[in-house]
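I have been asked to look over a protein record a colleague put together. This is what I was given:
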Amino acid sequence: MDMDVLIAPIIVFLVVVAPIWLILHYRSKRQVSQGLTEEEFTELNELISKADKMAQRIETLEAILDSEAPNWRNRDERI
């Protein structure tokens, strides 16, 4: 009797869940191995460009703060 209770879920898993799981797994593996699409590559380059611009702005702002308020970096320590 205990064996019958276990066999039904196992059969359902093997017939329904496992094939779907395998199909989705190997589909995602194939997409990863194909690399970036042209659109994704373009978007990645745009994000890199934006990150570089932000880094330059941050450096400029830090230089301005260093000249106008030399102790601005130490304010966290005083709090």
